[in-house]
Specification:
Blueprint: H1 2-24, H2 26-49
Helix pairs in contact: 1-2
C-alpha cells in the first residue's frame, strides 16, 4: 500500500509541474502518470499473493 501512496504523490507532483506538456501528449501522459500507478498496483498484487 505504501508503494501505491508514493506513486500517487509522485503523479500529483508531475501533474502540477508538467500539466501543459501532459495535455499535448497521450504517450507522455501514459508514461508519466498511468504506468507508475499500474506498476504500484502490480506490486501490491504480488505482495498479497505471497
Amino acid at each position: 500500500m505504501e508503494e501505491l501512496l508514493r506513486a500517487i504523490e509522485e503523479v500529483q507532483e508531475r501533474i502540477a509541474r508538467h500539466r501543459a506538456e501532459l495535455q499535448k501528449s497521450e504517450a507522455l501522459t501514459r508514461y508519466a502518470l498511468i504506468d507508475p500507478i499500474l506498476r504500484a498496483l502490480g506490486g501490491i498484487r504480488r505482495t498479497r499473493s505471497r
